[in-house]
């Protein structure tokens, strides 16, 4: 499998009120086609910004991002994003919000079937006509994920998509995402602050430092799917990641296997 | 228990709601009946009723109402469409925003009432001057609220549209307009309500028909009965319009 995304010497600064802040510093990593990559890091270290840069949604960047060897220069249509906030259109019901993910070139006859398929996949049957304000935060996020998935993108960018979900729904959604990933051979890049989630889902975890975000470590997770959460190997990887976060702290790691 | 409480509340609501109008009407009856006020200042209900029958009989009532209403509709349609179109352009195109900034800052503070003599000078005493007054009032309400609405659209939703590969046209149609609509509707509401005031004022200054003209005429003829019919008519019309506009607002924005 070839490389689908290349991130080369990327820096990102934001200027607020004349003051320039460095957000990301010297980011370098590749994503192979069909790979599941997680990005972990404390909040504010630039994870969302990094995903938006991959999707071509940030105007000024230093360095280079390539998708299929083409420099990202404006919106990258291969990438669909489930944003950190659900970003639903409040005046549209669930059915129409998910349908908004489809291109207008998709014929009417196929639309209905597709929308129903994805409503089913994210477990929102019976809520087709519900408005966003009538949904819980977790349900809203599921609508947002379905909307990103429905156009069948090559690369799926997931920005803390399970953050607002309860533990059970979260585990279910993680399974669903893995199923889609395997079945449709997609490339997935996930931002999360949940270390277990990163180990459970991904082939590779990119660990970012605090502001400005730098790559601390890239960890390959050599575990066969489906991964067993309680296993010794699984715990080894979670511990490796925890270590990165607490290496500066005087405290010993409370996390024991 | 719960439903008994609910119906009790409803009765209480109705009582408090209707207390003021009932008290006012009662006071009106009593004060004129016992001569607490002069009939030339506040006419008796009977006088007002006679004036109303007179106006209805001569078909003046309906004609005046239709005349004022048609001015409102014409002026509103003109002012609203120009206001919305310009507001959209200002809201979306920085060039137009810059071009119009001084114009808006300079002319918006001028009270429209102060321009009525100018409109009469330019457009004569006929329909046009009255329609223009209403159009201008509506124009400002819609221009300002449309600009606010369009500039206030959540940038994150536009970013979403871009990520989903939507064209500019689709983003405007499916995100910008629906998101700006509540603000535009507020402009429509303000425009309609103020139109009523403007049409009456314009008709009082120069007209030969319409509710405002009738009120001025009644004053000159010292016929307080007719004057009161006019005032009550305006009040009721305003009330009905406001109720309808609010009902429609509730329905249109039930997603909020
Ligand atoms: N459009 C923007 N303008 C200015 N600063 C921004 C913008 N977007 C993000 N930032 C800043 O960049 C930093 C990283 O943000 P973000 O990528 O959202 O972090 P994370 O997703 O890791 O929590 C934050 O300090 C945030 O305030
Ligand atoms: Mg974030």
Overview of this structure, please?
Chain A is an alpha/beta fold and 257 residues long. Chain A contains seven helices and ten strands. In chain A, the strands form two sheets. A six-stranded mixed β-sheet of chain A has the order 6-7-8-3-9-10, sandwiched between helices. In chain A, a hairpin with a 6-residue loop joins strand 9 (204-208) and strand 10. In chain A, helix 6 packs across helix 7. The longest helix of chain A has 17 residues, at 167-183. Chain A is globular, with a radius of gyration of 19 Å. The longest helix of chain B is centred in the last third of the chain and has 38 residues, at 168-205. Chain B has two domains: 1-37; 44-252, MetI-like (MetI-like fold). The model of chain B has no long low-confidence stretch (mean pLDDT 92). Chain B starts with a helix and ends with a helix. Chain B has helices spanning 2-33, 45-57, 60-92, 94-107, 116-123, 127-151, 155-163, 168-205, 211-220, 224-252. By secondary structure, chain B is mainly alpha-helical. The interface between A and B is medium-sized, with 23 and 14 residues. The structure holds adenosine-5'-diphosphate (ADP) and magnesium ion. The site of adenosine-5'-diphosphate (ADP) has 11 residues of chain A, from strand 1 and helix 1.
Could you provide a short overview of the structure?
The complex is a heterodimer of chains A (257) and B (256). Chain A has helices at 47-54, 94-99, 108-121, 137-149, 167-183, 195-201, 232-246; strands spanning 3-16, 19-32, 36-40, 62-67, 70-71, 79-82, 155-159, 187-192, 204-208, 215-220.
